Amino acid sequence: MIDFLIIGGGIAGISAAARLSALGEVLVLEQEDALGFHASGRSAAMFLENYGNDVVCALNVASHGHHISAHGGVLSPRGLMILGQPGQEDAFAEQAAAFELDALSPAEAAAIVPIVNTDAITHAGLNRVATDLDTDKLLQDFRREALANGARIATRARVTEITKPGAWLVRAGTDDYTARILVNAAGAWVDQIAEMAGIAPLGFQPYRRSMARIPAPGGHDVSAWPMLHDAASTWYAKPDAGKFLVSPSEEDPMEPHDAYADDMVLAEGLARYEAAVTTPVTRLETSWAGLRTFAPDRALVLGFDPDDSDFLWCAGQGGYGFQTAPAASKLIADIVAGRGSELPGDVVAALSPARFVRAG
Q1: Residue 264 CB: number of other CB atoms within 10 A?
Q2: Quick check: 360 pLDDT over 50?
């Protein structure tokens, strides 16, 4: 019998596998051909300690040390510049406080990012400590740790049936697996997996977020530019391997599926971006979308289900999965091992699935 059967091979499932593999036998089932295929493979790849609500930020802070030092670290300098236009004064003030921005004049912003349109931008600020996060390295570091501890990972293994005739019995393809603890790390599909297992869903909602890759604006060397973000969160952009990524920053509710970008949503977002810069978008090289899945209160859900102590939620990562993975996966292992967590008790409680009241 497998000790921990993890459904989902994104950053949530693979980081949990790394931690739990020190406690027992682990099997990860991933329905796609490769790990990190859905949301984990479509991340903006930034680390911002102040990104998210208070509970998420506590996980960010607790993850920072791992991101800096584990396996050589995954962070590199980037910075975050927030730009405000007329009518966005209140939104800019909120962002400036949340991200501890150093105030810049529009001309100072343009000195750092030459495409900033000083005729359109009235407010600017810079967070100099925001960093890029090497998402593939973090995923692979956790994968190697899990495999070194004897974990197994199966791709093309879509779960089609879950029963519990004593222990968990999980069917994936033509194979059946028996497990002591079922770990639900299925991303946008977590509520569907719960229902398949006879567990009441918690009301997770996937939201689409699209991205376009464009040539470096104006032929500039963009490698040292910070991430750019609209004060009202209607677009963001960042350098990527000599190119430029632009997102309309949309949050459209969706059913779980392999998401793809909506052309009209992209066009509208790119138009908002163009209003803040001097270089128009003339060509899209490629585009894609991912699903960011949130619990109703937008905090992660980490812990045993109150109605079944053999069903472990590792869900609701939203847009914070990579940022929070080290601390979130450590909490999962601490809960399983019955160890006290280094996180404050109120944070642990705010992450527990027991915080949700179910009807009946």
Answers
A1: 9
A2: no
Q: Per-residue b/e over 131-170, b at no fewer than 16 CB within 10 Å?
A: bbbbbeebbebbbebbeebebebeeebebeebebeebbbb
Q: Give the whole-angstrom CA distance, residue 351 versus residue 349.
A: 5
Q: What is the pTM of this model?
A: 0.95
- In the chain, what are the domain boundaries? 2-63+134-204+296-355, 80-128+205-294
- Rounded alpha-carbon distances, angstroms, from residue 132 to 128, 181, 224, 341: 12, 35, 11, 28
User: CA-CA distances (angstroms) from residue 296 to 82, 99, 202, 357, 359?
Assistant: 27, 24, 8, 12, 15
CATH class, domain 80-128+205-294, is alpha beta
41/288 Cα distance (integer angstroms): 10
Radius of gyration of the chain (CA): 21
Q: What percent of the chain has pLDDT over 90?
A: 94
pLDDT tens-digit map of 14-31: 999 999 999 999 999 999
Q: Is 348 helix (H, G, I), strand (E, B) or coil?
A: helix
Stretch 258-271: mean pLDDT: 95
Instruction: Summarize the confidence of residues 182-204 as an average pLDDT.
Output: 97
Cβ-Cβ contacts under 8 Å for 87 (sequence gap 6 or more): none
What 8-state DSSP symbol labels residue 101? Answer: P
One-letter amino acid for residue 309 of the chain: S
Name every residue whose Cβ is closer than 8 Å to that of residue 70 and which is 6 or more positions away in sequence.
141, 326
Task: Give the SS3 label for residue 161.
Answer: strand
Identify the CATH number of the domain defined by range 2-63+134-204+296-355. Answer: 3.50.50.60
CA separation for the pair 270, 288 (Å, rounded): 14
* Contact assessment for residue 222 and residue 216, using Cβ atoms and an 8 Å cutoff: yes
* pLDDT attached to residue 45: 84
